[in-house]
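seq/struct pair 1
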Amino acid sequence: KDVKKYSEIKKEYKANGYKEISKDTKPLIIEAEKQKRSSQNILRPDSDQSSPELSPYNAMSKVINVSGGDNWKNVTEWIEWDFKAPKAGLYKVVFHAKQGSKPDFSSIRKLVIDGEVPFKEAETIGFEYDLDWQSVELSDGKELYLLYLEEGEHTLRLEVSLTENMAQIIKEATAVQNDLIEIYRKILMVT
């Protein structure tokens, strides 16, 4: 299914009269450790005491306060959270994340809300390498992407993904590998 770009979705938001949630409204916070489902048993909540910015945080004892981590790296692995939007409107999305396992690379995640990717740019959200925790806004660096939610229950899924360029490289490498396997089989038959 083709997913529309944010520029098209933004026009639909405007045409429908959707408004951004008021800054006076209490932020909608989804705690990572409160995940509901995951594709693998190894993708479970964990503890991190590296920053008092984490919630919950306790310097004296371990508390479960993170999810994912170094185990969450294979394409199509996913974690889901259920949450409730207090009212209908356009929400700003910010992830509190740390990607300290792949220097010189970004970890790419696909955002899925209620079973659908909200717009094309949500298919490849990049989390840059940094040993510190960082706030990653859903944006292209220039424009903040807002997400429309109806009041009520929703499911958010983050899925390990690849950039379009990386997916193409893997597809071509797989084709070359299959060709080499076929040549190898022919050589075995002749010898």
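seq/struct pair 2
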Amino acid sequence: HNLAQIKVIKEKYKHLRQLSKAPTFSLTYMGTHHTLMSNCGFSKEEALAIEKGYHELYQVSDAYTESQLRKCCELGYVQVAFGLKVRAPLLKQCDYDSMPYSAKAEARTIGNALGQSYCLLNSRALNAFMEEVWKHPKMATKILPIAAIHDALYFMVEDDVEVVLFVNRELIKAMSWQDLPEIKHDTVKLSASLELFYPSWASP
């Protein structure tokens, strides 16, 4: 798939993109068409088609998750972002291809951790950005962090073009970092964009 075409989706198909979030998250965390039917209200035919399309599109991601879960069954833990380990005592006791229901629930938790743990990249970006802020006496009092939520950082920033330019340059650089070996890629890059809200959060 062409990356440029995928990026256009956010602008051209905003409504459809929003509608896709619930089924995409469900399938990312090892849900099935049954999950789509019960959680999203799809008919069985729709749910099966969405499930099939998802797994065709994300074959590489599926294969990675399966390889990590198989390794987890051998070791009893999985290593996630920044070397953190999540223990899996039930998976350690069973074979990946014939695991009982209780172990499948643990497998979903592990699968979730494999992806969600990389929200730590957001915390890393906040620290890296604030280190740059504190190096500049002018910026240190004009840029205040107020929240870090999932993959977004929020700041109170003085209405000054020099300050906004600094934030736009240094924050995007911090959020585009991908030096962890497992997330380095020649074509798939991390990126970010700055949104300004003024005079209130209701006005992006």
